[in-house]
Design goal:
The structure is a homotrimer of 116-residue chains. The first copy, chain A, is an alpha+beta fold. The first copy, chain A, is built from two helices and six strands, in the order βββαβαββ. A six-stranded mixed β-sheet of chain A has the order 1-2-3-6-4-5, with helices on one face. Chain A starts with a strand and ends with a strand.
């Protein structure tokens, strides 16, 4: 089976990997860590769009998303940016839980599984 | 590839998504938040049964389960309900970690990946 | 679809499950809980190697890894062992978050998804 790996980061991980029909993005975060959770969610999802595109797919084919919030009370604010992004005709399954993230300024990290 | 999405929730997510042979449930929780972790686990797993059924599969074909506990010390109690549910001839791979969940009354949330 | 389940643990889970071309390991941890995070990561990854081998695959075909750290500040130390293990020509996508684990001596738990 052909495996495509794109956007290597620091020799540690690939930011997106496709194998056959399946595509996995890495846990994706905002670039601008000064943004609030709405802004960080918007940037993380925009990066996911780019990564899905690298494997020839898009948000309408996302099957599952894991959303880690640095504070679970940010869920409503995160959801505002999620709702502005998600394809409402093709809603993914999702889990949203609290977890401390790699940088204390990070409020949200998102990884998705999609098909081509 | 055909993608089936069922049980949309608040326009935010689908509670189960199937694509080809793969099925993903959303993070599933109990309805009755007054239950202890054994009862909440039982209800979350019963909901997962329903979701798997919507995609034409069942617990005997679960490949992986992620279990988030609000307090990791609840693992033994959660496992009692897990053991009453799981198909012992077809044990999934599993990860069980602590995470703060969306409602402070929630003690457990479970998402599974299965095949048809 | 044929499903292979190996290394059952306490009648609760399988440590690795393969279905078609996909392989899922359980959340894997070190045997020797007296080790620091570098040693625990090395042992967890060695166990993952064994589990992948049981399903006829290897680390060069890992698509995604979830890494839970008991303390996110251990990420750099964990990464030293990760970098010594990972196939640099075939970097997986990855998410690394903090989560309290089943035993307070555990510092790291890792689950991977691979193809055959």
């Amino acid at each position: 089976m052909r495996i495509d790996r794109h956007e290597p980061e620091a020799g540690v991980l690939s930011n997106v990997v496709g194998a056959g029909d399946l595509v996995f993005t890495a846990g994706s975060v905002a670039d601008d860590l000064s943004l609030d959770v709405k802004g960080q969610t918007r940037e993380a999802l925009a990066y996911i769009d780019q990564m899905l595109s690298r494997c020839g797919t898009s948000k309408s084919k996302v099957l599952f998303a894991t959303i880690w919030l640095a504070d679970i009370r940010l869920r409503d604010a995160m959801n505002e940016s999620w709702l502005a992004w998600v394809d409402k005709a093709n809603l993914p399954a999702r889990a949203c839980i609290e977890a401390k993230l790699a940088d204390p300024r990070l409020t949200v990290e998102i990884a998705v599984t999609a098909v081509k």
